[in-house]
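Service request form, structural biology core

Requester: graduate student, group of Dr. S.
Request type: structure prediction, single chain
Budget code: on file
Notes: please return the result as structure tokens.

Sequence provided:
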Amino acid sequence: MNKVFPGVKKVVLVDDHPLFRRGLAQVINQEKDLRIVGEADDAAGGLALLESAKPDVIIVDITLPDRNGIELVKDIHVRAPETLVLVLSMHEEGIYAERVLRAGARGYVCKAENPARVIEAIRAMLEGGIFVSDKMSAQMLQKFVGIRGRSEQPGVDNLSDRELQVLEMVGSGMPTREIAQALHVSVKTVDAHREHIKRKLNLENAAELRKYAIAWSQTRVSP
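Core staff response, request fulfilled:
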């Protein structure tokens, strides 16, 4: 673990792409008051570092090999509510940003952004703020004041976090039994989630659900 001097904020990275972690670590370590104290490539490793390194900030991706990143954010918030969580992901901000904030994160940055935005987000969080893009901030404000928007139309933003996770898995081609095993739930529970998804998305049958899920999974990543 890197030595940290007084006044320097400790940062942990949780992402399953080593080259991306290395590049981001270099950017963060250039800041005199920020220091990377640990890296993990999955949720389990991230939670272990949360206990051992006791970071001020933990940066996590949504897509991790062993667990959904939103669930990891919830765990971090319960175990160490004082730790600031920044989600850094390729997934569309309009779908995920509000979800991760509800889960306990304090910021969301798309990986396509300039690395300087990560530093900007960290500093905003350390000052007690919440960091999202200007566009997302406007959307959230519109929702707060009751302006009708796309969230009131049939779409993935009407799904629960677990339903969205199941939709992702359906879109990746996973059969129901494999989804149940991955989520550690029964096949019956997955079937119930599938029914809820079809109802919320106005889909008639399993074939329509599969078609929708595949199409959505191919377009859900921000450009």
